[in-house]
Design brief:
The chain is of the alpha+beta class. About 65% of the residues lie in helices and about 15% in strands. It folds into two domains: about 40 residues, YefM-like domain (YefM-like fold, 3-Layer(aba) Sandwich); about 50 residues.
């Protein structure tokens, strides 16, 4: 469950808030004048949330492609992926 703290705590108790975010892996909601204003979370949780959101967007786009008939045979798709990976590999060398 997320904690709710006033904005003054962010200034006066930052290390405590940071520790709470990392140990409990939950966001801390910062309030201004009693209303939610900002969410603070650990960097690892931020990156994970960002990756999950990107994956969900990709899946939604893929579902939209299927719904609209924009599909290709699996063999062609994997061949394209292999070629792309080989190009990247040769660019790195």
């Amino acid at each position: 469950m997320e904690a709710i703290r006033p904005s003054s705590d962010l200034r006066n108790h930052y290390s405590e808030i940071s520790k709470q975010c990392h140990e409990e892996r939950t966001p801390v909601i910062i309030t201004v004048n009693g209303r939610g204003d900002t969410a603070v979370l650990g960097l690892q949780d931020y990156y994970q949330m960002k990756s999950e959101l990107e994956l969900l967007r990709t899946l939604a786009e893929a579902e939209n492609d299927v719904d609209n008939g924009r599909v290709a045979p699996m063999r062609d798709t994997f061949d394209d992926i292999r070629q792309s990976l080989l190009r990247r590999q040769s660019d790195e060398i």
